[in-house]
Write a structure and sequence with these properties.
The complex is a heterodimer of chains A (235) and B (312). Chain A has 235 residues and is of the alpha/beta class. Chain A is built from 6 helices and 8 strands. The chains are: A alpha/beta (235), B alpha+beta (312). Chains A and B meet through strand 8 of A and strand 8, helix 9 and helix 10 of B.
């Protein structure tokens, strides 16, 4: 546009990372429901993003089994993003996954004026590699320190300790999804409410502990419905 | 002589959400000096008084400029190694804290404020109950104390139960602050938080008068409400002759540079605005357009230009 002074103007980029466990224990209904939940959440995620024309949401998807694999080697604008089903097999290279995400958060990979990135980690197990090394590599990145980090644990076998350390959140705990409905509601929350909060231009004091729900950077996650019938399937 | 101009406008996202502008700006003259100041209130619900914090911040830096100008008339500043840098950081932070404390004690009815109600609506019930309890404790004490008893350095040693409430209320005023004071031979500036101070040399490209803090990224910024505010403050003094006889100075909050796809586009904005004689009249519309198509954030600018050919 030439009617405004200065160079080209555009909305601010917001990188949204899915980091998804595809280890063998995810096979069957867990991976199926995860595929379904993300696919179902996408239209709402797109309409949420459309409500805020000042943020350009870009998606990156990383899976980890015995090895890590980018489904999106480069960021994909949300409006062009479509979900491709993932399948399960192998070990749980969660540390390697975080190390891989750290590379994408290095200053030369991130846009200077970007909004805080969102990283959503979904797993049903515990790391089988060097988690500490991966977490350190991630948290050494200034963009990671300022990111909104969420963990969704699928089923009772998920090890919440590493997930708490990944989130390093004063108030919010990893979200425990024991059935398909809860998983779907947490995925919806992450793709709608969290995205909405992270894409606001408001600032926060640097060095203040990680974003907290009282800072409204993260809204409260959905509470289980006490009147809901017992879930048909429990993981 | 310098012409001066300042404007602070609500950003597109605040307009959509019916939230008032939380930036503030001022520009003017003090004797033979000219100044421009902007402040960016943090804006999210937790900082429900940050528009007041930003206004208090602008008044505070203006008062620092006034003190400095007055002092420079009465004292030979050449006797001091750096009369601005050695003093202003502590003055600004202490004075902003005093003004916040004064405002807080005079305005204890936050429950009825729309922005507080928005904040309360974001909290889970247990958190809200806990916070209201802390605020009640603070209010019960606050009705019986004076401003000097509410300053952070005193309250940090206080055993009283109202400290938590006070800290959250104090933080609700959080804001950044940056400004420039231009004299015949020297330029003094102050920056606490994100935003840019730019000068336009008489020949050549726009340049930064000082660099913003490295910790300012991804919406995080040093802030007046932080415990380490004095350490985060960056005062600077430059000689006019070093700056290539500048024809303009601009200070902006981060909503403007964050709207440009690259930094050179923002510097071109500074150059374009400084060169257009009618820019003060055009800037409100320009800034509205920049926020709409760009960051969506509040947008503020303070500008000083050599008077020749410029409209104030």
């Amino acid at each position: 546009m030439t009617d405004l002074p200065g160079g080209p103007i555009a909305s601010r980029p917001l990188r949204f990372f899915w980091v998804l466990d595809t280890s063998l224990s995810m096979s069957g209904s867990k991976i199926g429901e995860l595929n379904f939940a993300i696919r179902e959440a996408l239209p709402s995620m797109k309409s949420t993003a459309n409500e805020n024309p000042n943020a350009q949401v870009e998606i990156m998807v990383l899976t980890f089994g015995s090895a890590v694999h980018w489904l999106t080697p480069a960021p994909v604008p949300l409006e062009q993003f479509t979900w491709t089903d993932i399948s399960a097999g192998g070990l749980t290279a969660m540390g390697g996954a975080l190390e891989e995400v750290s590379k994408k958060l290095s200053p030369d990979q991130m846009p200077d004026r970007g909004l805080p990135p969102v990283i959503v980690l979904v797993t049903d197990g515990q790391p089988t590699d060097d988690f500490d090394k991966g977490l350190k590599a991630l948290m050494d990145q200034p963009w990671a320190k300022r990111s909104v980090r969420l963990a969704i644990a699928i089923g009772q076998d998920a090890d919440l300790g590493p997930l708490r350390r990944f989130m390093e959140h004063a108030e919010l705990q990893p979200l425990l999804a024991n059935n398909a409905d809860t998983l779907a509601s947490y995925i919806r929350w992450a793709t709608i409410q969290v995205l909405k909060s992270a894409s606001a231009p408001n600032s926060t004091p640097a060095g203040s502990a990680v974003p907290t729900s009282t800072g409204s950077v993260l809204p409260a996650p959905p509470a289980p419905d006490p009147n809901a019938p017992p879930p048909p399937d429990v993981w | 002589m310098w012409s001066s101009f300042a404007v602070a406008l609500a950003g597109a996202s605040h307009v959509r959400g019916s939230v008032p502008v939380q930036d503030d700006a001022a520009a003017g003259h003090l004797d033979d000096w000219a100044y421009a100041i902007v402040s960016d209130g943090h804006g999210s619900e937790k900082y429900f008084r940050s528009q007041i914090g930003a206004a208090l911040a602008v008044e505070t830096l203006k008062s620092a400029f006034e003190v400095f100008v007055e002092r420079s008339k009465n004292v030979n500043l050449n006797h001091f190694r750096n009369p601005w840098n050695e003093w202003v950081d502590r003055y600004v932070v202490a004075e902003w804290n005093r003004r916040v404390a004064e405002h807080l004690l005079g305005n204890l009815d936050w429950d009825s404020e729309p922005l507080f109600q928005r904040f309360a609506a974001t909290l889970e019930e247990a958190k809200l109950r806990e916070m209201r309890g802390e605020f009640r404790k603070f209010r019960a004490i606050a009705r019986h104390i004076k401003v000097d008893q509410l300053l952070p350095d005193l309250i940090s040693h206080s055993p009283l139960g109202y400290v938590q409430g006070y800290r959250k209320l104090h933080a609700s005023y959080g804001a950044t602050l940056l400004g420039v004071l231009v004299g015949e031979k020297t330029v003094h500036s102050f920056q606490l938080g994100d935003g840019y101070i730019v000068y336009i040399p008489s020949s050549g490209e726009p340049e930064l008068l000082q660099h913003p803090p490295a910790s300012a990224m991804a919406n995080q910024t040093p802030s007046l409400c932080s415990p380490d505010a004095v350490e985060s403050a960056a005062p600077a003094t430059r000689q006019m002759r070093e700056l290539g006889a500048p024809k303009a100075f601009l200070v902006t909050t981060d909503g403007v540079p964050n709207s440009y796809t690259d930094f050179s586009g923002f510097l071109k904005f500074c150059s374009d605005v400084s060169l257009d004689p009618d820019s003060p009249a055009k800037l409100p519309n320009w800034l509205e357009g920049i926020s709409q198509r760009g960051s969506g954030d509040d947008v503020s600018i303070g500008m000083l230009r050599q008077l020749e050919g410029c409209k104030t």
